[in-house]
Structures are given as structure tokens and as C-alpha cells.
Amino acid sequence: MSSDGIEALAEIDGEGASSSVYVACTPRGVRAGSANQSYAVVAEAHVVGKTRVSGVALGQALTDFAYQLTNHAYELAECKEPRRFPDELPRYKDRR
Fold first, then answer.
1. Could you say which of 17, 35, 47, 59 has the lowest number of CB atoms within 10 Å?
2. What is the widest separation between alpha-carbon atoms in the chain?
3. pTM higher than 0.70 for the full model?
4. CB within 8 A of 60, min separation 6: which ones?
5. Nearest 5°: phi and psi at 78?
6. Are 19 and 59 in contact (CB under 8 A)?
7. CA neighbor of 56 nearest in space, from 20, 1, 16, 10
């Protein structure tokens, strides 16, 4: 899923689940056009083993958690790009 430059992905399998959230970030002290590489804040959340929820609900819970971590890390990194993080990302839909 994507929302205003914030990318999120969840993967659920029989062994557990994971989610990652990505947002571009040029750290303070780096000139945006002079970087040799792209910079970003990426947060990942993983669950291994049995959980009380599964499927889309589990993917959404992990993504929401990773999103909150990303939002907090973005503030701490003092990224140059001004960004307003929405209260939540779009919801995953069950494809059944």
C-alpha cells in the first residue's frame, strides 16, 4: 500500500508474519542533491509463531505498529523533507 510517499508491505505465511514501512528521508547535514545514495527511514515488525489474530488483521496490526515506529524515527532523524504523517495508513482489504 502507498499513501503520500509512505510505502508499506505486509507478508503473512505459515511460520509468522512481517511488515515494513518506508519513507524517504534526507538526514540533517546532508545536501539533498549531493548524496551518493538515497536515504530513508524503514521500520520492520515481525511475529514468529502463533498469534491471536491472523490474515489481514495480523498484517494490519503489524503495519500499524511499524508505521508508528516510522513516524517516531522520522521525527528523531530530523529529516529535511517536511511531512505530515496521517493518523493511519489505508486499510488492507481481504482478497478472498
1. 35
2. 47
3. yes
4. 10, 91, 92
5. 50, 50
6. yes
7. 10
Q: In whole angstroms, give the CA distance from residue 48 to residue 46.
A: 7
Give the helix ranges, DSSP H, for 1-96: 55-77
> What does the pLDDT read at residue 32?
64
pLDDT tens sequence for the chain (96 residues) = 888 889 999 998 877 899 999 999 988 877 766 666 788 999 999 998 888 888 899 999 999 999 999 999 999 988 888 889 999 999 998 776
**Distance (Å, rounded) from C-alpha 14 to C-alpha 6?**
27
**Residue 94 CA from chain centroid, whole number:** 19
Q: What is the Cα–Cα distance from 65 to 92, expressed in whole angstroms?
A: 14
